[in-house]
Amino acid sequence: MSSSAPQDTGHHRLWSVDEHLADVLAAVRPLEPIELQLLDAQGCVLVEDVTVPVALPPFDNSSMDGYAVRTADVQGASEEFPAVLAVIGDVAAGSGELPTVGPGQAARIMTGAPLPPGAEAVVPVEWTDGGTGGGAASGMTPASAAPEGAGGEVRVHRAAEARAHVRSRGSDVQAGDLALAAGTVLGPPQIALLAAIGRGTVRVRPRPRVVVLSTGSELVQPGEALAAGTIYDSNSFALAAAARDAGAIAYRVGAVADDADTLRSTIEDQLIRADLLVTTGGVSVGAYDVVKEALAAAGSGGEGGAAGGVDFRKLAMQPGKPQGFGTVGPDHTPLLALPGNPVSSYVSFELFVRPAIRALMGLPQSEVSRPSVRAVLKADQPLRSPAARRQFLRGAYDAEAGTVTPVGGSGSHLIAALAHADSLMVVPEDVTSVEPGAELEVILLG
């Protein structure tokens, strides 16, 4: 499945941001569902409705440590005239055999323990003398220290209504209820619910595996010494972190030197563990733009190796004008080739790669792209933008005030400004200046 655009059309026209994104999403199919253990399914999208097999809680149980009683026996009880009941035993959480509470009797009961037959309510231990014959108890004597506490008498100082401090069977969910609907992303509370209803595994779409490769002979890995003319490779870290943030499993391949054959063989090696490949750098019009050289040379045919249809095109946007997109390898793995400038690369990721990852996860269209809001520009001077380009500028968004403030300049290499921005301000293609106080679209990155 090659990208839908014919080879090399990118040289002859400007693509809009929306056309390029539509092209990417048209080539991305959600991953096939698999059955996973609960913790392995965290962050994945459920592909089936999950119904409740058993009611929760599965039996009437106590919400307090105290005494299971019959309401008639404690009616009118007070500190002055306590109800004196015979204690017939203990009911702990997990108890199997339960004593029956008859008239004038009570059973010590622990939080979560099943309500014994005959009992109608639970009186908290603080409403009693705890079986000590003294004043109000602050707690129970541990069963191991005082087995006799399960016998003897207890004085109850307050009356209790029927069902007081009792959690009813099925009060959380009933058997047959819908627990989670298909399309739910499994976070900690959803995994807790699945475990509570006894599900050990669940059918989900797996998290996409994204391989990030940065290219450039000038790149040095962080932690190593910089030589003359070299810079640290920040892009592969930024994009691997962004892929993980989007919900993927990210594999970072350190900088690949500017050599087309090396890049081709590296891509071939990485295809085994990739649902999506992302390259950064080498897509412009320079003599050393190896991604273009390696992948455009592959032509649109071919089943083996790194062959496929990768189309290099120019987009009507700033930053991020040069982009490449297509499929490579025998399984037609989608590949997005992003520019090498750090800010261009990150903005391109947010606009094109993140939606592709989330489409692979099987998320609905509405959750594929970052949310956007309208906000009022708070600035000392107008924002300038080139004609016929959609510009994305870094901003700091204030949700309470409904304003957005520019962060840093418009240069595509300003990483420091990006680190302090939480949004992208969007200046449309037909606008060249946005005055302070005007409203504009803001893409929220947080």
What's the helix and strand layout?
Layout: E1 14-15, H1 17-26, E2 34-37, E3 45-46, E4 50-51, E5 61-62, E6 66-69, H2 71-74, E7 83-91, E8 105-109, E9 121-124, E10 153-156, E11 166-167, E12 178-180, H3 188-196, E13 201-205, E14 209-215, E15 219-220, E16 231-232, H4 235-246, E17 249-256, H5 260-270, E18 276-280, H6 290-296, E19 308-315, E20 317-318, E21 322-328, E22 333-338, H7 342-360, E23 372-377, E24 383-384, E25 390-398, E26 403-406, H8 415-420, E27 423-427, E28 433-434, E29 439-444
Parallel strand pairs: 1-19, 7-8, 14-17, 14-18, 15-16, 18-22, 20-25, 23-26
Antiparallel strand pairs: 2-13, 3-13, 4-12, 5-11, 6-8, 6-9, 7-10, 19-21, 21-22, 23-29, 24-28, 25-26, 25-27, 27-29
Helix pairs in contact: 1-7, 4-7, 5-6
Kindly describe this structure.
The chain has 446 residues and is α/β, with parallel strands linked by helices. The longest helix has 19 residues, at 342-360. The chain is built from eight helices and 29 strands. The strands form eight sheets. A seven-stranded mixed β-sheet has the order 1-19-21-22-18-14-17, sandwiched between helices. It is elongated, with a radius of gyration of 32 Å. The protein has helices spanning 17-26, 71-74, 188-196, 235-246, 260-270, 290-296, 342-360, 415-420, and strands at 14-15, 34-37, 45-46, 50-51, 61-62, 66-69, 83-91, 105-109, 121-124, 153-156, 166-167, 178-180, 201-205, 209-215, 219-220, 231-232, 249-256, 276-280, 308-315, 317-318, 322-328, 333-338, 372-377, 383-384, 390-398, 403-406, 423-427, 433-434, 439-444. A hairpin with a 4-residue loop joins strand 21 and strand 22.
